[in-house]
Amino acid sequence: MNYSYLYLAAIVIAVALYLRRQRRLAQQHALELKQSLEAGLAEPASLHPVINPSRCIGSGSCVRACPEEALGIVGGKAVLINGSACIGHGACLSACPVEGISLVFGSEKRGIDIPHVSPEFETNVPGIYIAGELGGMGLIRKAAEQGRQAMDAIRKRADGSHDIDVLIVGCGPAGLSAGLAAIQHKLRYRIIEQEDSLGGAVYHYPRNKIAMTAPVQLALVGKVKFGEVSKEQLLEFWQGVVQRTGLQVSFRERLTGIERHGTGFVVQTDQGRISARSVLLAMGRRGTPRKLDVPGEEASKVVYRLVDAQQYRGQHVLVVGGGDSALEAAIALAEEPNTTVTLSYRSEAFSRVKAKNRERLELLRDAGHLTVMLSSKVRRIEQRSVDIEHEGRTKHLPNEAVIVCAGGELPTPLLRQIGIRFETKFGTR
Questions:
Q1: Whole-angstrom Cα distance, residue 39 to residue 354?
Q2: In CA terms, which of 32, 45, 105, 366 is 20 to 30 Å from 14?
Q3: How far apart are CA 284 and CA 292, in angstroms?
Q4: Could you tell me if 104 and 46 are in contact, meaning their C-beta atoms sit under 8 angstroms apart?
Q5: Residues 147-162, mean pLDDT to the nearest whole number
Q6: Contact by Cβ (8 Å): 343, 326
Q7: Res 313: pLDDT
């Protein structure tokens, strides 16, 4: 028996199967790109990859490295097939074997306002620093490094002339890292966070999402080699760091204004006034949750994100919004047993949503698992009910929880009022 023919046949079969799989994936990616363009999801929100087609060899290494599944191979080249899903993770950049990827801010169609900062992350307003996502850096590792490095500069300003040496706004990767550095430098610090949890944007990632793939240097902790780590593992790690180091965070406290006062600042929050020598702005670009501004919205049953659908099992729940976050929340809730879900959206149709979310929502609606009320507005929230204006009349619905997914208001106007200068980036570094 001539084994060489058997080996050759095996190789031919393997190559044929590989090429068949690649063609199938290319067709799938082309379809996803088409759907993304039709749904208005092609424009990235912030930092994102741009592929140089003359360098790209179509290896697919960047596609496999992307935890958001935002990249695909179309026509033999890597393409950003779902720009809105990209969060600037940056894993694609290091995965590319031919250095054919650059990370840029904004696009030709959508500009991104990025604040001017010095190499020490100080803005044009002396004493105010910006680190992390607000400065355009969505990479967790880089954000943490910026927080630590900014604190190296801030400690040189500390002179005991104010109540605290530094106020840190936000406890995402940049804020947490900065807080640890403040402890290491024996600075009088305070961290405020408008939400009730640490982690910043990471907290809002989907379950089991890969959150970090590169080592990071943290003050008091040292070099942490995560490798690939899920959102849950990363949050658990940070919780452990907070407990071990005694890092103090004031949750549910929101920044409302900053005024120059002598050699430092008086910072106004919704909890009071703080005198600080320096301010480090480490909040994300999600901004403050956009509210409905209706009677009863201050009730504790009103929240602005869905954390765990199971906690609403068996309840009457209203979801407000028309983006992917609203649809995904309604879908998750509708899949819980004995849960009555209503989705209210002010426009006539959903736009800029993923096709799979739209299709899943329609299936659940057709099966009677949830109610969709388009062209509707919430008018009042009461303890056990909600009033919704729909089709020319007000409907009174039983309700035990309201989840508002209406996006956020970016802090840019507040920062401009302080005097911080911005540059609008259109697809540039």
A1: 7
A2: 32
A3: 21
A4: no
A5: 93
A6: yes
A7: 95
Q: Round to whole Å and give the CA distance between 66 and 278.
A: 37
Encoded tokens for 280: 């480090």
Helices marked H in 349-411 — which ranges? Answer: 355-366
The DSSP element (H or E) to which 146 belongs, if any, is helix 140-154
pLDDT at position 286? 66
User: Does residue 208 have a pLDDT over 80?
Assistant: no
Task: Label residues 252-272 b or e (16+ Cβ within 10 Å = b).
Answer: ebebeebeeeeebbbbebeee
- Determine contact, residues 103/49, Cβ cutoff 8 Å: yes
If DSSP codes are grouped into helix, strand and coil, which group holds residue 105? strand
User: What residues contact residue 26 under an 8 Å CB cut-off, 6+ apart?
Assistant: 72, 73, 74, 75, 76
| pLDDT the model gives residue 297 | 93
Nearest-10 crossing angle of helices 324-334, 355-366: 40
Return the amino acid letter for 200. Answer: G
Q: What is the pLDDT of residue 137?
A: 64
Between CA 90 and CA 49 the distance in angstroms is 8
Q: Which of 45, 44, 43 is nearest to 286 (CA)?
A: 45
Judge contact between 369 and 383, C-beta under 8 A: no
At 292 the three-state DSSP class reads coil
Contact at 8 Å (CB) between 96 and 49?
A: no
**Stated pTM of the model:** 0.72
Q: CB under 8 Å to 375, separation ≥6 — which residues?
A: 345, 346, 347, 348, 390, 391
Query: SS3 of 327, please?
Result: helix
- Alpha-carbon radius of gyration of the chain: 24
